[in-house]
Amino acid sequence: MTAAGPAEIAIDVKGLSKSFGGREVVHDLSMQVRRGSIYGFLGPNGSGKTTTIRMLCGLLTPDGGEGTCLGFDIRRDADKIKRRVGYMTQRFSLYQDLSVRENLEFVARLYGMADPRQAARDMVQRLGLAGRERQLAGELSGGWKQRLALGACTLPNPQLLLLDEPTAGVDPKARRDFWNEIHALAAEGLTVLVSTHYMDEAERCHEIAYIAYGHLLAHGTVSEVIAQSKLTTYTVSGEDLRALTASLAGKPGVDMVAPFGTSLHVSGRDRDALDAAIAPWRDQEGLRWQPTAPSLEDVFIDLMNRSKDNFQ
Amino acid sequence: MSDAVLHNTSPEPRFGFWRRTYAMLVKEFIQLKRDRVSFAMIVMIPVMQLMLFGYAINTTPHHLPAAVLLQEDSDLGRSILKAMENTAYFRFTREVSSVAEFDDLLLSGKVLFGVEIPRGFERAVRRGDRPALLVAADATDPVAASSALSSLGMIVQTALAHDLYAGDPVTTPFEIRAHARYNPAASSRLNIVPGLVGTILTMTMLIFTALSVTREIERGTMESLLSMPIKPVEVMLGKIIPYVLVGFLQATIIIGIGVLLFGVPVMGSLLLLALLSTLFIATNLSIGYTFSTLAQNQLQAMQLSMMFFLPSILLSGFMFPFLGMPQWAQVLGECLPLTHYLRIVRAIMLKGSTLPNLQHDTIVLFGLMLFAMTVAVFRFRRTLD
């Protein structure tokens, strides 16, 4: 990443670490997020994404490391950060026994907004929740809950949104709407850090970072991350791919074999070794081999497999 | 796959009821075992409380504090006082020099009895005038006062046993005029109804706030609350103040019923009663809130409340005379808001006491409230660490 002035950097942390009960959940994590960008935070379950996000907004104190969030020190200025950051928790954490409008008014009042009622009414309109504002938050469906939670954390006009797996368990249509909303917010100048498991969502981010076992393994734009991986991938289509999978798996030079619909992705980090390994099947009748760019998923699974060797 | 499944639609397994009950039972035991603190409390609370109350409670209190107004210094006067102390019911803690001071001590509850030996008492006895010796008792708690008062009859005889005046055993040379103040009919209802005001308020107020923080943690709302710019004091006051109003309403209902249905008088200022009741309500809410910040889950919060509520009933003077308890139990009792509120509410309703009489208890209540609030603010975790 090119060096950018502090005014253009929303999050700038170095060497963050955090342990729980002797287990290090985040290890020496450094990252920079440019203002106005959508930064995707990817990684398997338990990789330390939530812990990192919580350290950024002052909900957890880092054991080591330092940094700033919106120019404020994450250790000392938690109060100032909280006033400017909207945090959407992984689990729905608004009051289930308050109505949509009451929840929004509560948030608006907490942030000292001039006219909480009006602010809540405007947000109900913006969320398309008109007619449901009297419904209890606990009675909303998953998709609506998630919209309401996003609404609540954007209500006080934050400069930075931290979204922790906001689309988990939400249907594809609602997910698409949600991402359109996030792009609209970013276009207004908001910085968004969003953690996710979905590859299609990662591809909608301006930049991504991949974290596994507490280590930041890769970051950059999607194409940069794919290029960095140095993975060679072939797409194989044809008959009896099941037998081919069994024969290739575990062969030296073949790092990954994964079915993709009716075809197979065969990847390796070392191009020559991979070519040598697949040579016996290369010209087999009924199989079509085609070199392709690895998908983001190939890259991530490879990163995960590699990190498993390194850290476990 | 389908074959196995189809054939598996077997009827009810054998002993199905017991198997399922057993499964549930095993699960409950595992969960109970995981929650170490609750488990320790389950064992410790009954043991501790049984020991505590078993030794502390005494329904025939002895060595009750009494004041003496000595208008003359005579041998006879002294031997009467000595005889009173010998009954083991009385303990003379104060000597006063004016009737006003005498009344004040009784109004503030610092003594339960006052003995007045009038001027010229010994001479009147010698002359055979049968003078009266006044014993005033604070009868707001009839249990505490009654056995001591009933012992007075024998005192005349013992006081004179070694004396020259042991003349005619039928006509005693002086009489003891016992005066049960504030509750002359010795109606226990007059004592219990004001006490209930305090006890009911303690119970309801504690429950209102004891779950407030643990509930937010268990429902997951704490995470977003903590990510917003709110300070621990603000959370606390925001959670306590609504219930002050609820508590005030409740107190009004209980006192209203006490007055209308049970005929308990309000001798003192209703405004003062309202003000000090509000203070007591706020103190209990603060303590409940403190429990909520100490407990890790709702079960623990409930147990802490119970652990506080039981001594409040037993050691505050609600069920058993406060002054009848051993010294250490009284010290414990002094730490409970209910002890002080009981004195306040009984004094205002039955004795007509004023704020200066109740200064001490008011200050202690206030202090307990501030202490609880301070602990709560410091205990409130601002992060999820």
Q: TL;DR?
A:
The complex is a heterodimer of chains A (312) and B (385). By secondary structure, chain A is of the alpha/beta class.
3D architecture notes:
Chain A is an alpha/beta fold and 312 residues long. Chain A has eleven helices and 14 strands. Chain A has helices at residues 49-56, 78-84, 100-110, 116-127, 142-154, 172-187, 199-202, 222-229, 241-248, 271-282, 296-311, and strands at 9-20, 23-34, 38-42, 64-69, 72-73, 85-88, 160-164, 191-196, 207-212, 215-220, 232-238, 256-260, 263-268, 287-292. Chain A has a six-stranded mixed beta sheet, sandwiched between helices. A four-stranded antiparallel beta sheet of chain A has the order 2-1-4-5, covered by helices on one side. In chain A, strands 12-13-11-14 form a four-stranded antiparallel beta sheet, sandwiched between helices. In chain A, helix 4 (116-127) crosses helix 5 (142-154). By secondary structure, chain B is α/β, with parallel strands linked by helices. Chain B is built from 17 helices and five strands. Chain B has helices at 2-7, 16-34, 36-56, 75-86, 99-108, 121-127, 142-150, 152-160, 188-210, 212-219, 221-226, 232-260, 270-294, 298-315, 327-334, 337-351, 359-379; strands at 64-70, 90-96, 113-117, 132-138, 175-181. Chain B has a five-stranded mixed beta sheet with strand order 2-1-3-4-5, sandwiched between helices. In chain B, helix 4 (75-86) links the parallel strand 1 (64-70) and strand 2 (90-96). The chains are: A alpha/beta (312), B alpha/beta (385). Chains A and B meet through helix 2 of A and helix 11 of B.
